[in-house]
TrEMBL record:
The keyword Repressor does not apply. This is Beta-xylosidase. One of its GO terms (biological process) is carbohydrate metabolic process. The keyword Transport does not apply. It comes from Dyadobacter pollutisoli. Transmembrane segments: none annotated. One of its GO terms (molecular function) is hydrolase activity, hydrolyzing O-glycosyl compounds. Keywords: Glycosidase, Hydrolase.
Length: 563
């Protein structure tokens, strides 16, 4: 019987969640790491971030967080933001931003003003970051339906309320193309050709929701945009289409029709077959719910979106090697919907968001391995919300300049390099089960992701379940094989209720909405990645090293070995 269960839960060479001793609390969960078996490069697909409100970029807490994000990554981080061409005075609001890049004079002639756009991109480039430059949305003077233009959406309002004049097609596609051309040319003049060649440009966002035109009108917008980018800089990289609900019938149709247009459709500008396509982008979102007052996560839709995106691109042989970017990859859809108006989003402040992030990124890597695609990045659509209540429950990485636990998962990822190596865990749910039904079984998902470089190795271990409950620590025994050193330094980093957790410290303070300077300093320190105990030396025997830890439910540990 045990053998039958084991075979049923075997997928792509990773043994997971066998039922041996599954009901024994005393026997440790075993995880085996083979440092001699490389799977693929440990690509930093996590080093991509984005947000709706571009004007937060150069504000106080925005700059602070971008500095921290840049510092945690060993490679340049890509940043994506909405509203880079929207009309307005640059005043930030929830799910809104503006740059006033394009207006017209009294005779209808274009007036370009790059001051705010430059302040956004300058903030990135000065920190060694790269724009994933979104070409959108429609300037007021160019919109076919300009009024009303700026929305007044607030949390709790219907989502469709944000779709105002900025979401419509242009009156004149040639004027739109001239704007795009001028923007790219200006960027090359300001930042240099080599720098801009390293960026990605992409057209619009979620045209199956954020576009008040037809599908054909969107393809026309894409063709004019891509042509303008390539005329301004032939070596620039352009892509699309950042569809929402990739695995839904509507989302899949949009993606497949877009790929078909780029492969064999008639180009609206040139009249020739096909359109430039240097990267394919699509979105992936989970779906938490409130069940009897408890948050229950659901990563299945998010992972199925990614699976569908990968498979859709593989249907076109000419695109199979293109970089694939999950333009937004999150537990659900609305970053600006706090837990006061959306109680199912109450997972965001504590360690639930951390363990979910660790567990889902591991499965993204598994999907890359399964389909053999060129998976380049997954944008976490989570940043910060300036001048908002403390720990309001936005989907953000920091609140009022204080880092939340989830940011420390990315600090952990930043310590992993080299190649991903083979992992076997008896309690890690198989990929297909997670795709089908997320992580809902009687036991939690205790899984791992491991890497090895020349003189270092690391394993990230999580104890995750969809039900937002804390739980006692479980013993976990991690065995490393093919360790090439006679002595290694071991350091354990931890995110749990007591470590790397500013939210718990804030609650113990009495949840102050106006903390004083001393309290803020304490919170800032609590928001950093912490270790458990001190580093110690371990001497492998016959190339094997064994480490035992106790991992609470919804906690994440990173064990780093250096020699």
């Amino acid at each position: 019987m045990q053998k039958l269960f084991k075979n049923a839960f075997l997928l792509i060479g990773i043994t997971v969640y066998t039922f041996t001793n599954v009901f024994s609390q005393s026997k440790p969960v075993t995880i085996e790491i083979d440092l001699g078996k490389s799977i693929a490069p440990m690509k930093p697909v996590w080093a991509w971030f984005g947000y709706d409100e571009p004007n937060y970029t150069y504000m106080k807490d925005g700059k602070k967080l971008l500095t921290e994000i840049a510092a945690l990554s060993p490679v340049p981080v890509y940043v994506r933001a909405h509203c880079l061409l929207c009309t307005g005075d640059g005043t930030a609001a929830l799910k809104w931003g503006s740059t006033n890049a394009y207006t017209e004079d009294s005779n209808g002639n274009p007036v370009y003003n790059w001051a705010i756009v430059d302040s956004i991109f300058d903030t990135y480039v000065k920190r060694g970051m790269k724009p994933l430059a979104q070409i959108g949305f429609m300037p007021e003077a160019m919109s076919t339906h300009p009024q009303p233009y700026q929305h007044d959406w607030k949390p709790g309002d219907p989502y469709g309320k944000i779709m105002t004049g900025w979401a419509y097609p242009p009156k004149d596609y040639k004027k739109w193309a001239a704007l795009v051309y001028a923007w790219v040319k200006h960027s090359v003049e300001r930042y240099g050709q080599k720098e801009v060649e390293s960026w990605y440009w992409e057209v619009w966002n979620e045209p199956n929701g954020y576009w008040k035109g037809t599908m054909d009108e969107f393809f026309k917008l894409y063709d004019y945009s891509a042509d303008a980018v390539k005329r301004a800089l032939p070596t620039a990289k352009i892509g699309g289409l950042n569809i929402a609900g990739t695995s839904s019938p509507g989302g899949t149709k949009w993606l497949t029709e877009f790929l078909k247009h780029c492969a064999e459709g008639t180009n609206y500008v040139t009249g020739k077959i096909g359109a430039p396509l240097d990267a394919v982008l699509f979105h992936a979102k989970g779906s938490p719910k409130l069940v009897d007052g408890m948050v229950r996560m659901n990563m299945s839709p998010q992972l199925r979106d990614i699976q569908t995106g990968f498979k859709s691109v593989l249907a076109y042989p000419q695109f199979k090697n293109l970089p694939l970017i999950v333009g937004e990859s999150d537990p659900e859809g609305c970053a600006a919907c706090g837990m006061a108006t959306n109680p199912s989003n109450a997972y965001r402040n504590g360690t639930m968001y951390s363990s979910y992030t660790a567990a889902t990124f591991a499965r993204k890597y598994q999907l890359e391995d399964l389909y053999g695609v060129n998976f380049l990045g997954a944008v976490s659509w989570s940043f910060e919300f300036e001048n908002q209540p403390w720990f309001y429950g936005f989907r953000d990485l920091a609140t009022n300049g204080v880092d939340k636990p989830v940011l420390n998962v990315f600090r952990m990822f930043g310590k992993m390099s080299g190649d991903r190596v083979e992992v076997k865990s008896e309690r890690m749910y198989p990929l297909q089960m997670v795709l089908d039904s997320s992580i809902r079984g009687a036991r939690t998902d205790i899984g791992a992701l491991a890497s090895k470089d020349k003189k270092t190795a690391a394993v990230m271990v999580w104890n995750y379940h969809d039900d937002d409950k804390q739980g006692a620590a479980e013993p976990v025994e991690i065995t490393f094989s093919n360790v090439s050193a006679s002595s290694v330094k071991v350091t354990e980093y931890r995110i749990d209720q007591e470590h790397s957790n500013s939210y718990e410290v804030w609650k113990k303070m009495g949840s102050p909405q106006n903390p004083d300077a001393k309290q803020i300093a304490t919170l800032e320190k609590a928001g950093q990645l912490e270790t458990i105990g001190k580093s110690y030396q371990l001497k492998p025997k016959s190339g094997k090293a064994k480490i035992s830890i106790a991992l609470p439910r919804q906690a994440v540990s990173l064990l780093k070995l250096d020699w």
